Amino acid sequence: MNTDNGSKGYLFRIVMVAVLGGLLFGYDTAVISGAEKGLQAFFIGANDFTYTDAWHGFTCASALIGCIIGSALSGILALRLGRKRSLILAGVLFFVSALGSMSPEFLFFEKGQPSFSLLIAFNVYRVIGGMGVGLASAICPMYIGEVAPMKKRGMLVSWNQFAIIFGQLVVYFVNFLILGEHTNPIIESIGQGVNAVASGSDPWTIHTGWRYMFGSEAIPAGLFAFLICFVPETPRYLVMIGQDKKAYDVLSKINGNWRADIILPEIKETITVRTEPLFTYGVLVIFIGIMLSVFQQVVGINAVLYYAPRIFHDMGMESPMVQTVIMGTVNILFTLVAIFTVEKLGRRPLLIWGSIGMAIGAFGVALTFGNDALNLVCMLSIMVYSASFMFSWGPICWVLIAEIFPNTIRSKAVAIAVAFQWIFNWIVSTSFVPMFNMKTAGDPDFGHWFTYGLYGVFCVVAAFFVWRLVPETKGKSLEEMSSIWRKKSAKV
Questions:
Q1: With the C-alpha atoms ordered 140, 145, 149, 150, is the resulting torsion angle positive or negative?
Q2: Which long-range contacts (CB under 8 A, 24 or more apart) does 459-464 make?
Q3: Are 237 and 58 in contact (CB under 8 A)?
């Protein structure tokens, strides 16, 4: 270890373990995309209730309820348990959810017999996993932001978004491999939100395939829960609880002794108490944090990520799962753009240009969706829309949420901002299908162009919001945030 400049290997190891939480975040939220048709067909077979579209929509989005709960509790847990132990808890929740979702009949129900009670049990397990996602989504970037050196912070926090998208790509690929030569069941509408499974549908995907998809998450979840036990607590939290010696040891391993001698007094100066009232630094910083989260969702990206196979199927693509994997690969590549440019270009330019690119893509989809002659243009527009998000709002929103809040309100402020993110994620995800399927007497494709047109408008508004209100945090230490927001609140 280089005590003068710190150990890059040590920093790399602890950050890579932390970003496994991001991978699980992506894995858990996207696993439903491949499993939902088999799951729907399974519960359609229940005899004691009717599994309607409304129940299916709730079941597909039930994990988001847990995400809201987990993110809302993340501030309290990050303060009382610390960042590290909160992440261990998240790993345990992921693991329990994976096994429970794979076999919700465990202990209480007969295997393979769908019923209303079994549906409730399944959704409980999905909510538990969602709580893990909510915790990881708030605390992973917070953890990385608090251990990372100032000049590398944006890049390292962006790796968390890379892990999220990589987790989604991994589960798209895993779902594809699990499906293999089998086919998803064909669901036929019989009116009023009620469906039936078409004859000839593959029984393996109805009774078994979706279980393997959910259960596959147990492997990375168990690995994360085990490895996170071996990373240190963050220096900022250690100072908060009066463990200055441990904080100095971590700082010196990461930054070197001479930098640790400078950083530790700066942390102690800003953390005179463990917490301060939420609005100590004014309303603006909380408002900006919340709106960053809101805009990250209302631009509509998760409607594409969660329903990708269905969207590509509706576009007439012969292999929607293959198209979904291709989109995931494109997302990975453009997330790397953010990772390697965020410290050079800054946060604001990436957000603004990404918003413009998303708007172009969304308006392109709105104008071409449903036109068979323009299917290729429509698919390319979706790719532009998704890729633009991946180098901007995807990673950079998390970077800013990890950076902009002063030390003494960070855990509470991050919890609030991330809770709003999951609330609007749920709103966007549950509203997408009914909006997309809206029809009028004169325009059967009204919902198609309206939905993506609306997302395009939000992209334009998001660019204006960043231009007018969001400060640049490139090159600023976490400790500088306190003085920056004190000055802004004084002017107000």
A1: positive
A2: 459/299, 459/355, 459/356, 459/358, 459/359, 459/362, 460/355, 460/356, 460/359, 461/295, 462/295, 462/298, 462/299, 462/351, 462/355, 462/393, 463/351, 463/352, 463/355, 463/356, 463/359
A3: no
What are the tokens at 309? 């196979």
Q: What is the pTM of this model?
A: 0.78
Tell me which residue has tokens 């631009």: 299
Task: Cite the beta strand spans of 184-343 per DSSP E.
Answer: 187-191, 194-197
Residue 278 burial class via C-beta count within 10 angstroms: exposed 0-12, middle 13-18, buried 19 and up: middle
What b-and-e string marks burial along 286-298, b requiring 16 or more CB atoms within 10 Å of the CB? bebbbbbbbbbbb
Q: Which of 448, 415, 456, 443 is nearest to 432 (CA)?
A: 448
Write b or e for each residue in 380-412: b if 16 or more Cβ atoms lie within 10 A of its Cβ, otherwise e: ebbbbbbbbbbbbbbbbbbbbbbbbbbbbbbbb
90: Cα separation from own chain's centroid? 14
Rounded CA gap, 92 and 128, in Å? Answer: 10
Residue 105 DSSP code: T
> Distance (Å, rounded) from C-alpha 22 to C-alpha 28?
10
Report which residue type is found at 390.
M
For residue 100, give both structure tokens. Answer: 């429970």
Tell me the HSE value of 420 on the side-chain side, using a 13 A CA sphere: 19
Distances (CA, A) of 46 to 114, 116, 209: 5, 7, 18
238, 244 Cβ separation under 8 angstroms: yes
Would you give per-residue pLDDT tens digits along the chain (492 residues)? 455 667 888 888 998 898 888 898 888 878 887 888 899 999 999 999 999 888 887 888 888 889 889 988 988 898 889 999 999 999 999 999 999 999 999 888 888 899 999 999 999 999 999 999 889 888 988 898 888 887 888 788 888 878 888 888 888 889 889 988 888 888 787 877 788 888 888 899 999 999 999 999 999 999 999 999 999 999 989 988 889 899 999 999 988 888 888 888 888 876 655 567 777 777 888 999 999 999 999 998 877 766 666 667 666 666 676 777 777 788 888 888 888 888 888 889 999 999 999 999 989 988 887 777 777 888 888 889 988 998 899 888 888 888 888 877 887 888 899 889 888 988 887 777 677 777 777 777 787 788 889 999 999 999 999 999 888 888 777 777 777 787 766 665
Name which of 442, 425, 336 is nearest 29 in CA terms. Answer: 425
Distance between CA atoms of residues 290 and 397, nearest Å:
10
Q: Provide the b/e sequence for 25-48 (b: ≥16 CB within 10 Å).
A: bbbbbbbbbbbbbbbbbbbbebee
CA atoms of 174 and 159, how far apart (whole Å)? 22
